[in-house]
């Protein structure tokens, strides 16, 4: 198998109950593997309860099939440690409907609640509501 240099860049910030992910793509398979390696530390900081991710995506509309499968696996792992929803804000408001449909397909394969926003305040409000709803459901079962 040919190895390629990692493409893409990701920064993480934890602001409980949110994991803020600032990603600049495109990201290839090698970049996705580095993402998985680095994100574990930040997810662990939130794993004591439900949490959500806010993704700021720059030039990160599409990816190869192999990279897509890596990201689907990463989302499944995140759900195992408390991820309940993701909001995505694309840097370019002209992002095509096809790019949003591509990402919706990824999130749908993981049964993760997700939404696309143009406004940070609206995205954070929606994410906090998703976390609170998850907390309500957990408390109702106890």
SSE topology sketch:
Elements lengths: L8 E7 L2 E7 L4 H18 L4 E8 L6 H16 L2 E8 L6 H13 L3 E5 L2 H22 L1
Parallel strand pairs: 2-3, 3-4, 4-5
Antiparallel strand pairs: 1-2
Task: Please tell me about this protein's structure.
The protein is an alpha/beta fold. It has a single domain (9-141), classed as STAS domain (Transcription Regulator spoIIAA), CATH 3.30.750. It contains four helices and five strands. It has helices spanning 29-46, 65-80, 97-109, 120-141, and strands spanning 9-15, 18-24, 51-58, 83-90, 113-117. A five-stranded mixed beta sheet has the order 1-2-3-4-5, sandwiched between helices. Helix 3 links the parallel strand 4 and strand 5 (113-117). Helix 1 (29-46) packs parallel to helix 2. The longest helix has 22 residues, at 120-141. It is globular. The termini are far apart. The relative contact order is 0.16. It comes from Fluctibacter corallii. This is STAS/SEC14 domain-containing protein.
How would you briefly describe this protein structure?
The chain has 142 residues and is of the alpha/beta class. The chain has helices spanning 29-46, 65-80, 97-109, 120-141, and strands at 9-15, 18-24, 51-58, 83-90, 113-117. The chain has a single domain (9-141), classed as STAS domain (Transcription Regulator spoIIAA, 2-Layer Sandwich), CATH 3.30.750.24.
CATH architecture: 2-Layer Sandwich
For the record, give the distance between the C-alpha atoms at the N and C termini, rounded to a whole number.
50 Å
CATH topology: Transcription Regulator spoIIAA
Helix content: 40-55%
Class inferred from helices and paired strands: alpha/beta
Counting DSSP E segments of at least 2 residues, the number of strands comes to 5
User: For the residues shown, what is the average pLDDT?
Assistant: 88
């Amino acid at each position: 198998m040919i190895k390629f240099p990692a493409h893409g860049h990701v920064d993480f910030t934890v602001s409980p109950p949110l994991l803020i992910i600032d990603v600049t793509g495109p990201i290839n398979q090698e970049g996705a593997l580095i993402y998985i390696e680095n994100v574990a530390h930040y997810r662990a900081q939130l794993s004591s309860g439900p949490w959500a991710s806010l993704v700021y995506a720059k030039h990160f509309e599409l990816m190869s099939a192999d990279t897509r499968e890596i990201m689907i696996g990463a989302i499944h792992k995140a759900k195992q440690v408390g991820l309940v929803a993701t909001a995505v804000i694309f840097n370019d408001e002209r992002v095509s409907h096809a790019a949003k449909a591509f990402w919706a397909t990824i999130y749908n394969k993981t049964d993760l609640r997700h939404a696309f926003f143009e406004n940070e305040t609206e995205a954070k409000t929606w994410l906090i509501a998703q976390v609170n709803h998850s907390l309500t459901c957990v408390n109702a079962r106890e």
